[in-house]
Amino acid sequence: MPRKTALEVLGGGDPREIHSWLREASIEELRDALEDVKRHETWGSHVRDALDIRIALESQKTANRVLLLTVVTVVFGLIQVIGVLHQIFCHH
Q: Which of 8, 22, 57, 65 has a 20 to 30 Å separation from 28 between CA atoms?
């Protein structure tokens, strides 16, 4: 069974179903939902909050990946520096 759209869920009016949908929605679904909340103003802040949370989580994942790549790059750079210093001081 295909996933319900935001308009279908908001139109149903069941708060449990709406909150469940908001927890499971992707960023794209939440962006689309913002268009539909004009018809259901009371849920607009909930959709915006869910979208903000999802974007923050994705941003945190990206920041963690960048940090990991930075650490790996520094380790490889140190390995090269140690090799060069070893060549300079031990073989001359």
A: 65
